[in-house]
Amino acid sequence: MGVRLIQISAVYFVIGVGFGLYMSMAHSYDFVGVHAHVNLLGWLSLAVIGTIYSIYPELAATKLAKTHFWLHNIALPVMMIGLFFLILGQESLVPVVATGGMVMVLAIVLFALNVLMNMKPRA
């Protein structure tokens, strides 16, 4: 699971950098929220979590890890696509963004619980 998360994070890195490049070339920073969240919750967070799961593979084997993986990877694109269109004026997508955000928080809480409950010091 660690390798898979790192691979997914690399895709989010490309997407985040792409948003940054577009904004700087167009001199339009409307999507800075999407850019920041894709880089933080996609690139950085998934890369760090993937590294933790690679160092502590016993954490990756838990139901908490599997649930976190799916919730994180469903919530982030739902939230970011919703936010993108919300910024473009689709006010009806506020509940989509809010739901994606709440699911993301749940995913992160599950990751934290997994670390707190199952990570043991190395000998």
From TrEMBL:
The keyword Membrane applies. SUPFAM superfamilies: Cytochrome c oxidase subunit I-like. The chain crosses the membrane at residues 5-24, 36-56, 68-87, 93-117. Keywords: Membrane, Transmembrane, Transmembrane helix. It comes from the Bacteria. Gene3D superfamilies: Cytochrome c oxidase-like, subunit I domain. This is Cytochrome-c oxidase. It comes from Niallia endozanthoxylica.
